[in-house]
Amino acid sequence: MTRDEERLLRRAIELAAQARAGGNPPFGSLLAAQDGTVLAEERNSTLTDRDITAHPELKLARWAARELDPATAAATTMYTSCQPCGMCAEAIARSGLGRVVYALSGAQLDGLKPPGSAFVAPPAEGPALYDEASLPVKGYYT
Asked: The whole model's pTM is what?
């Protein structure tokens, strides 16, 4: 990791501290151009916004998809204080960002949490009704 990358990752950690100081979970992220210029910064605001999706990584992925052309997005790097969760990782993939650099891994984060605090996925059933469900999708991706 270069000194510039370390600087950007440390800024993401500062944003995480700011999120916590503001009453939110301690996560922060920024999006940088190929030359290291910071394009946008975000902090977690899930509690103050009362929005479970207000993760900084998701907010930046949405911003990039809306504001950057595909070539510019592909040349960016997201620096984030923690490895993106599944929701954010999928949004990052769909937004076409080029790279993600994170400080804490998901496993390291889990090690910092009290036992039993992990989210539990509800039971899911499916697939079902393929013939009906496939009708509105057929031909869309061609």
From this structure: 0.92
Q: Which of 40, 53, 45, 35 is nearest to 12 (CA)?
A: 40
Domain around 51: 3-115
Give the three-state DSSP class for 106.
helix
Tens-digit pLDDT profile for residues 38-47:
999 999 999 9
Closest of 72, 126, 65 to residue 93, by C-alpha: 65
> Which CATH number belongs to the domain containing residue 36 in this structure?
3.40.140.10
Helix axes 86-95, 56-67, angle to 10 degrees: 10
- Answer for the pair 60, 45: CB distance below 8 angstroms, yes or no: no
